[in-house]
Each structure stands twice: as C-alpha cells, then as structure tokens.
C-alpha cells in the first residue's frame, strides 16, 4: 500500500482479543488493509496493549468493557464487537470519547438457529442422558418424542428468531408461535403459524419456548418467577440468546420442582458458568442440558464475523459511516 508520496504507508494496527483472534486467525492474518494482532481480553491489559502498539481500533468479544479501553483508543477509533450482542460495550462512554462502536448483525443467524434446534432435538430425544449412559456401558433406551406437530414459541422475532422458525417449520413440521415486543403490533411472518405480543398466549400451549431477545436493561431477568408460571410441566426452555434474560435462581427452583420439563442453556448470567449460589447449580439437575456459549461458534460464522468486523473498521477509515453497523450513530453527528 502506497501513500500519495509513493512511499509504503503503514497499516493501522487493530488489536483483536485472543479468543476472537484464534476463531478466525486466517481472516485476520490475510487482511491487507489493516495489521491485526492478538491481544489480551482483560480491559486493563488490552488498554495497555493499545497504547504500547499505537493501535487505532479493537475487536472484542462478549466480555464487559467499561473503563480504560475508552481512554486508550484515539478519537475516531472503532470498538468492533465480534458478534451481535453488545451489552458489554458502554456506547455512551464510547460516544463521549469519540469512538465508533459496531457489531456484526445477521452473519451468525444460521449458526445460532441450528444450535437452537439441536438443543430442541436433544431435549425431545433425551440425547444427553442416553449418551452418558452408553459411556458407562449401560444400555438404557428412553422413549423420545417426534418434533413434527409440536409447538415452538419463539420469543423475539428478529433475524435469529426468524431463522429458527424457518428450520423448525420447514424442516421439522413444527407449529411456530412468534412473540414480539408488547409495543409492536403483531404482523404475519413467514414460517410462523401466528405472531402475538401476548406472552401468556405464546407460552401457555408450547412444548418448547426459545428465547431470542436482546440483552437490554429492560430485558434483564425477563424470564422471572411470574413468567415461569406460564410454562406447563411438559415444556422445555431453550436459551441461546443471553444469560441475563433469565432469573437463574427462579429457573432452578422451577426445574427442581418439575414445574417445567427441562431447560437447554447455551448462555448464562456469568461466563464461564458459575452458579448464582452453591445450592443453585444447574449442573446438579438431571433435566438440564448445558453448552458453553457456542451457538455462533462455527467455522463459517466466525469467518463471517471477522470479515464483518474488519469491514466496519475499513469503512470507518474511509468515513463511510452510513454503511457501518454503527451502534452509537450520535458519535458522527
């Protein structure tokens, strides 16, 4: 790359938190316009690396960043979220510091939707328990259930929720009920048998309830004791969205008392998973399936997230703010 004088122009340094860098190392290493380097994900250490390397931008994972990173990056720099949920980024603080925040919407819809239906199927066929029994040399077949004709309530009808509905309806023949925000008038959507903004109506007759909501402040502990009362004892909860949506203590009590059939969880309030209290540990319950936040962790989705994060940074360098996945548009006003 040459500048206007014909000299080789130094590429801007982009620091990528280590886990995210390893997920798509090939993409980051082959980026021609930017110099991508792995960095610690601890905020203090990351901020120190930004200063030491003179980095202009940072690509980060789901960890919470609320302090020194915003002081270390130069105005006009980008904090690019490697993923969709951005509850770990303080967009207000970023705006005050003149930093642009982005995420990667849409590129992980298929991966998260596939994992959601994998958990639905595992629940329906008692897959985890039978696999564990086989590893103990026990032959203990369990009667399962078909998914065709079963009712799936999708709470949150955004891109991932719609992808879940498509796979469930077209692939398994499930009846999909969509539940949208209370302030949004229900409208028909492809692959949904019906769409409502009445939570009780969506959940009451469901065999499976899958959460696909954002981790906004309004949604913290959305699934609380009162809403858990809407579940039937045959109903499974599936959560591949955000752990903060669920009151884990209330869910544990409902599961232990068999007020719902079970829960398949990919996300948790604290990650790596730590129980809300020693006596409230999902790992102690036989009707819980747990995976370590891997819904979007596929080769394909990781590649797309890396490419999209880098694209946002390149667009910022060009001043093409209207083409970015900008989370704090006020910063360019």
What are the salient characteristics of this protein?
333 residues; 15% strand; Rossmann fold; 12 helices; globular; alpha/beta; 5-stranded parallel sheet
Write the layout of secondary structure elements.
Layout: E1 12-17, H1 18-23, H2 25-30, E2 34-39, H3 43-53, E3 57-60, H4 68-72, E4 78-81, H5 91-96, E5 100-102, H6 109-124, H7 127-135, E6 151-155, H8 159-172, E7 175-179, E8 194-196, H9 199-204, E9 208-211, H10 225-228, E10 236-239, H11 248-256, E11 262-265, E12 288-290, H12 299-318
Parallel strand pairs: 1-2, 1-3, 3-4, 4-5, 6-7, 6-9, 7-8, 9-10, 10-11, 11-12
Helix pairs in contact: 6-8
Uncertain segments of ≥5 residues (pLDDT<50)? 1-8
Largest sheet: 7 strands, parallel
**Overall number of strands:** 12
Order of strands, widest sheet:
8-7-6-9-10-11-12
Shape: globular
CATH architecture assignment of the largest domain: 3-Layer(aba) Sandwich
CATH classification class of the largest domain: Alpha Beta
Order of helices and strands: EHHEHEHEHEHHEHEEHEHEHEEH
What proportion of the residues is helical, as a percent range? 25-40%
CATH superfamily of the largest domain: NAD(P)-binding Rossmann-like Domain
| Terminal CA distance | 31 Å
Radius of gyration: 22 Å
CATH topology of the largest domain: Rossmann fold
Number of domains: 2
**Mean pLDDT over the full residue set:** 95
Structural class: alpha/beta
Helical region count? 12
Query: What proportion of the residues form beta strands (DSSP E)?
Result: 15-25%
């Amino acid at each position: 790359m040459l500048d206007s004088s014909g000299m080789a122009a130094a590429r801007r340094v982009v620091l990528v938190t280590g886990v995210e860098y390893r997920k798509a190392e090939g993409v980051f290493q082959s980026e021609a316009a930017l110099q991508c380097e792995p960095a610690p994900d601890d905020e203090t250490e990351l901020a120190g690396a930004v200063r030491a390397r003179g980095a202009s931008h940072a690509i980060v994972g789901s960890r919470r960043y609320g302090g020194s990173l915003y002081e270390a990056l130069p105005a006009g720099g980008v904090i690019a979220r490697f993923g969709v949920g951005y509850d770990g980024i303080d967009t207000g603080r970023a705006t005050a510091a003149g930093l642009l925040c982005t995420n990667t919407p849409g590129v992980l819809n298929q991966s998260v939707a596939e994992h959601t239906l994998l958990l639905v199927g595992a629940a329906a066929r008692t897959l985890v328990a039978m696999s564990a029994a086989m590893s103990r040399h026990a032959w203990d077949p369990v009667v399962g259930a078909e998914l065709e004709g079963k009712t799936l309530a999708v709470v949150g009808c955004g891109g991932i929720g719609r992808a879940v509905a498509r796979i469930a309806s077209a692939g398994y023949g499930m009846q999909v009920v969509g539940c949208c925000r209370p302030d949004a008038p229900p409208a028909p959507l492809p692959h949904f048998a019906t769409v409502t903004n009445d939570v009780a109506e969506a959940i009451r007759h469901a065999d499976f309830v899958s959460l696909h909501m954002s981790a906004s402040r309004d949604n913290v502990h959305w699934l609380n004791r009162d809403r858990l009362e809407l579940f039937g004892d045959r109903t499974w909860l599936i959560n591949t969205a955000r752990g903060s949506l669920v009151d884990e203590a209330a869910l544990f009590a409902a599961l232990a008392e068999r007020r719902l059939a079970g829960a398949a969880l990919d996300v948790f309030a604290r990650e790596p998973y730590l129980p809300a209290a020693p006596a409230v540990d999902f790992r102690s319950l036989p009707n819980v399936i747990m995976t370590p936040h891997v819904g979007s962790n596929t080769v394909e989705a990781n590649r797309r997230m890396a490419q999209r994060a880098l694209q946002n940074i390149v667009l910022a360098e060009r001043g093409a703010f209207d083409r970015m996945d900008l989370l704090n548009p006020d910063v360019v006003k």
